[in-house]
Amino acid sequence: MTSSFDDLARSLAGPMPRGRVLRLLGGATIVAALPGLWPAPGRAQGKVTCKAGEELCANGKGSELCMPAGGTCCQFGPESGYATGLLVGCKPGYQCGGKSGGVFEACKCTTMCEDGSCCPRSIGRCVNGTCCPAIRTTFRPGTRRKSVACCPPGTIAVPGGTGLCCPKGKPKCCEDFDVRAGNDEIGTLGPGKGRLCVNGKLRKT
Questions:
Q1: Of 25, 40, 76, 82, which has the fewest beta carbons less than 10 angstroms from its beta carbon?
Q2: CA–CA separation, 184 and 174 (whole Å)
Q3: What are the residues facing 185 on neighbouring strands?
Q4: How far apart are CA 137 and CA 68, in angstroms?
């Protein structure tokens, strides 16, 4: 590792407010291969070897690390608080941050819900101020598929459906209200505006 990682290691080992550490790491799943922070990656011919599901993040100057596939590789200069700079791999759903209001944040969430949860499209959608996992996100009936609702825990959204929530492996639990073609807008069977079909029963959204 380069001296930038040595600087990071020394700083994390020394006195530092917990809030600053959290802000620094943010959405970074890997900052450096430091003991206790992340397992040291394997090496081949002097270079980092990433595992399946990971991608290489490098600055072209010898600093390298592995990050989750689909993540964002970020390089920072002295503004990071480290004279020799900092290399950070932000996990999917985060973008490179920076210094704002005197506070440095390495990774910044691309979509933040009202409750502060990070919810990019790759993870889900913000529904009623909180992040609804993609597997539970369904179209809200009566909105011409322009609004979404969240299926309750224990159910998943029926693929292609509108307002249909069924247990995994039982996609026909709401067949009496199946509106896969979007026909809820032309008066045929459907949960109806402001309702979801959950396990075969109607429930208000």
A1: 40
A2: 14
A3: none
A4: 24
Rounded to an integer, the average pLDDT of 5-16 is: 44
What's the whole-number mean pLDDT along residues 86-115?
90
Helices (H) and strands (E) in the chain, counts: 2, 17
| Domains of the chain by residue range | 3-109, 124-204
Q: Where are the alpha helices (DSSP H) in the chain?
A: 3-13, 18-25
Q: What pTM was estimated for this model as a whole?
A: 0.60
Q: In a 3-state reduction of DSSP, which class is residue 125? A: strand
Q: CA 136, 188, 132: angle at the middle one, nearest 5? A: 10
- What is the Cα–Cα distance from 51 to 136, expressed in whole angstroms? 30
**pLDDT mean across residues, the chain:** 77
Q: Determine the Cα–Cα distance for residues 33 and 35; give it in Å rounded to an integer.
A: 7
pLDDT value at residue 92 = 86
pLDDT at 10 over 70: no
More confident of the two residues 205 and 138 = 138
pLDDT tens digits for range 153-176: 999 999 988 999 999 999 999 988
